[in-house]
Write a structure and sequence with these properties.
mainly alpha, Ferritin, 0% strand
Amino acid sequence: MFACSREFAAGIQKAIMGEAEAIIFYRQLLQMTREKQDREIISQILRDEEEHYRNFSNLYQSITTGRQELRPPKNEQLKNYEEGLFAGVIDETEDADFYSELIVATTDQTIRDLLFGIVIDELRHASLLNLLFAKAHHR
């Protein structure tokens, strides 16, 4: 998928935008959360996404000489908590797949390690959101 460094940089730029949108998404979801344990889980996911955003931004700066030119992130309002949890599971899984493609697109071991850690986080997020969805769905 990423035949050259320009395409890899574009992939990192896409990841930055995805993480920016995730930050907005989890802030909204957090406002809808009522239970303390759920709030703690979503807060941790939000902190992870903020860290991913910083990591991808730093990576982009290190592999390019240009500056980031990003469109404003999407800010779609969530209809309800349960729908948000389900959408989060899908998004986190898709992000893990995309970041896995980035891993195999580079031979730089430091970058691969960074991306691998982020993939693991995204899969953990999907699992936690799935748990919260099941919990909310069975009330």
